[in-house]
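User: what does the whole thing look like in 3D?
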Amino acid sequence: MGSVGAKEVPVLLTADGRRIDGRRLDELRPIRIQAGALHQADGSAFVEWGANKVMAAVYGPREVHPRHLQQNNKAVIQCRYNMAAFSVDERKRPGLDRRSQEISKVIGEAFESVVFAEEFPRTSIDVYIEVLQANAGTRCAGVVAASVALADAGIPMVDLLPSVAVGKIGGAIALDLKKEEDNFGEADLPMALVPQSGRLVLLQMEGHMTEAELAQALDLGVKGCRSIHETMKQALRDRYSVAPLAGGSA
Amino acid sequence: MSGEVSAEIRTSHILDLAADGKRLDGRGPDEYRKITVEPGFVVTADGSALVRIGDTAVLAGIKLEPGKPFADTPNAGVLTTNAELIPLSNPTFEPGPPQPGAIEVSRVVDRAIRAAETIDLTRLCVTPGEKSWVCYTDIHVLDHSGNLIDAALLAAVSALAHATMPAKRFGIAEADYPLEVQHVPIECTFVRLGDAIVVDPTFDEERAAQGRITIATDETGRVVAMQKGLIGAFSPDDVKGVVRRAFVHGDRLRGLATGGAR
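Assistant: Here's the predicted 3D structure for the full assembly of 512 residues, as structure tokens:
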């Protein structure tokens, strides 16, 4: 989108259904998740997803700053999604722009929908997401990283929160857009799924889709989220599983 | 505080009613409050509209000025949308820099206007790479009684549809001419109240809501923007259901946005 007067549009989808990087329409980019990537944070995770590199840290439950945000019956979840100045082709001015503030809001609300915040009244759970290298789908990579970081911090939640964007390229619905597909595609629909309930707690969309395409996109996104959910669980198992004791019996 | 206690009582009452398919103001789950659109409310603006949805009042004003196109879009004009939730409109708003709520309203409205290609931006170009029109849409929330997003987009689109290009004033053309609107996006917002999903929430219903979802559609049958907000969740089937409802409402509300436009 935003392609008014833009340069040449690349071929996003070949006749035999292959994308720029050779993926099929329902294929994810490779995802690597490392739980517990930082030492100072109470929980953390590093996600490499295609050419995205995103770090997330969780602090808390701890004292609320600023004080007036404190709630007597539950923890507040304060989320900050930020992009490093060097994370995009053209240097981004440091600090939270309006896009980052909106994304921080919807991601924070998504986590408030799954965290048992009432267990920690008068505290804050601070979720920090730093995009170090961006290649489309950074908010989804941020949700995945932050979700694993929350689990790493031992925060009780209904479930992990897998997230992915579905889009439309060359007239077809496609999973997990990369940068060129996002820039020149016809729609972008990021979502986050609560696997246990099958419900979405983050959902945005921009572009053009018919009602039927939208239904198809939702179904494809849910499928993608379920696959990412497995990768997230594996990352936590990798961090916390211990080798069985030698000679121990089952 | 007594305010908090009465709000909690009200919330539980709203949820109890919703379980029986009822609402505090007697509306059905799929019923909007009364909507009025008053284009040309502010004559100092190049286009304006005051929209009321029930007790909610939102004023949008357009200002058009010559400026410079962005380097990566030399043949297009510039569109900016800003929303202010001023302290006049609700006891919970404080003065200061825009809060996340205001930023969300302006970004969700902006997204719908942009994605629907409401304005053909190439027609705002004067000299490629050098000079183009900048179209500022400023949204002032006057009375926040719920469902700001729908009211804000309706006001913005109506203001655009009734706007005049001040070409004579800036020496760009011999005479002023109307700004052309090619598509009309309409946003419909729903909130979850228990198992019910109701359209056009009031302020109290938003406070009681377990999730909010906005769907923007245009007259060509396209969904052009969506936004889920607040704490809560929707199943894919819930989303498909509200998309269908948004198309029906959109077709009805579109005439209000353009009504009386040249």
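In plain terms: Chain B has a mean pLDDT of 93. DSSP finds five helices and twelve strands in chain B.
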